[in-house]
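quick one before i forget lol
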Amino acid sequence: MTLGDAVDALVLGIVEGLTEFVPVSSTGHQIVVADLLNFRGDFAIAFNVIIQLGAILAVVWEYRGKIVHVVAGLPSDREAQRFTRNLLIAFFPAVILGLLFADIIQEYLFNPITVATALVIGGLIILWAEKRDHRVRANSTEEMRWSDALKIGLCQCLALIPGTSRSGSTIMGGLIFGMSRKAATEFSFFLAIPTMIGATVYMFLKHGSTLLAGDLGMLAIGFVTSFIFAMIAVRGLLKFIGQHSYAVFAWYRIAFGLFILATWVFGWIDWTSVTDL
């Protein structure tokens, strides 16, 4: 591992950790930053997915008390059973569509221009969702109905398009369908656990053969860095939404997306084609 490889792993780990749980699209940012770093190929794909486990571990650690309580209560606790049921209902739509269309999406949509377009459109949707009349029916994840979970799960499917944002889709879906801002955000955190673990296993089975012993150093740097910065992001986001809306993230998405599109239109940056990623 060269110094340049270590720097690339550090940068990508920071990007992953800071963006995984906020509605700005971690995959979109990874695609753009990896393109700028000339970090491409099968190993790059495997690397970007595997370091997401570091970010997921941050959520597991932050909510370890609730996770242990739910697991311990599954045999007899109705509340734990309902929470688990809702999580599974929300999880499966993305699994089904992901297995059916993941390769096609990766082949044709994993490029900076698709990301930029999705960032702008998603930002506008967030602004609309925040300005509409918001009637809260569920103030906690325990108050969710199975139909709410299914709707949020269908919203998560939109995140198969890079730049849309998995957290953005699920949080905004929760707000639109009657969840409080805190409940929608926390359910998005919990839903990330099975979703990202499933994606990691799938990508590892597909691209794991490209990993070599010499790659472990980069993976370790990216994994640890993403864990640290995801912990910062999760705690910061929960504090932020207590007093603010998600509009600031929407404006960031729009500005960043338009900037990428401008660099493409005016030829300031020679973004690679999707086949080069």
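fyi The CA atoms of residues 51 and 220 lie 8 Å apart.
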